[in-house]
Design goal:
4 helices, Glyas_Fos-R_dOase_dom, VOC family protein, 170 residues
């Protein structure tokens, strides 16, 4: 008899590159309510510390320094913000058809209020708020964009609740 050693891994964090670290920390802490774990700080390319060595392993040798900040969601998921001085400051064109990270999703039962805050801080609403099960269940969603052009989605209910009802099957 064999045992299944596979188990669902938990999500630790997501890394987001932004054009201005201070503006991004302000947006994500004030609009999303994420906790600031580490204020923006500089990381310089060097081989004397573990973080310096790790960053060289990840980014290679074509950099000298960057800024980083750490935030966390209410459920402990980390948000790692990066700002590289020589990087392109515009978000890439939104193209969900290409391979790569398409979006991330946050959950807020008051989707309308969150969208209003996003708009007030310079973000965009990319579509109308939609319901998964109109006249049956109050599950809503909407795609939005932060002020830096990063696309993300908002759900009113958990992923499990939204899809456990057999979404799209009836």
């Amino acid at each position: 008899m064999s045992t299944n050693k596979n188990y669902p891994k938990s999500f630790s964090h997501i890394g987001i590159t932004v054009p201005n670290i201070k503006e991004a920390v302000k947006f994500y802490s004030e609009v999303m309510g994420w906790y600031i774990i580490m204020e923006p700080s500089k990381v310089k390319k060097e081989t004397e510390t573990a973080i310096g060595k790790m960053c060289i392993d990840v980014f290679g040798n074509d950099w000298t320094e960057f800024e980083i900040a750490h935030l966390a969601t209410s459920d402990g998921i980390g948000i790692e913000l990066f700002c590289f001085p020589n990087g392109i400051k515009e978000a890439p064109e939104f193209n969900p058809f290409n391979t790569g990270l398409f979006h991330f999703c946050v959950q807020d039962p008051n989707i309308e209020e969150l969208i209003d805050k996003i708009l007030a801080y310079g973000g965009k609403q990319r579509m109308p708020i939609r319901e998964y099960y109109p006249n049956d269940k109050p599950f809503k969603m909407c795609y939005v964009e932060d002020p830096f052009g990063i696309v993300f989605e908002i759900y009113t209910h958990s992923y499990e609740l939204t899809y456990s009802s057999g979404a799209y099957s009836k």
